Predict the 3D structure of the following.
Amino acid sequence: MRKSFLKGAQKQLLTTRDQLMEGIRAEGATGRDLQKDDGMDTYDLASEDRDRDIGMILSDRDRGKLQAIDAALERIKGGIYGVCEECELEIAEERLKALPFTRLCVVCQGEREREARLTRRPDEDRGIRRLQVGDTEDEG
Ligand SMILES: [Zn+2]
């Protein structure tokens, strides 16, 4: 993974994160007093306690996104960003640009989605209910 690309990705992630936090803060400020946390601009990546606190006012989707961003930032720090968790090959830069916090390469993602579909079980298990002839038999 190129260093310049990593830098760009990190910047993008941080920007997305900032925007997310900004939105959360705006939402939170209406119902909650978050004023005491004035230092939120210089947000420390390692402050998990604050994350947890903010997590209370997050929607599940936002929380998931935030976690994904944090995880991606962690991976950048750890030097494993852009490496597929499954096959450990580098994820294509194009894909990372589109999905900055993806953890899987396009192949493994496809595999995983297919597996998810399989485990969800297709229609075969629905069990076609055969109508028993019988109820309508007293006609005659
Ligand atoms: Zn892979």
In short: The chain has one domain: 3-124. The longest helix spans residues 3-31.
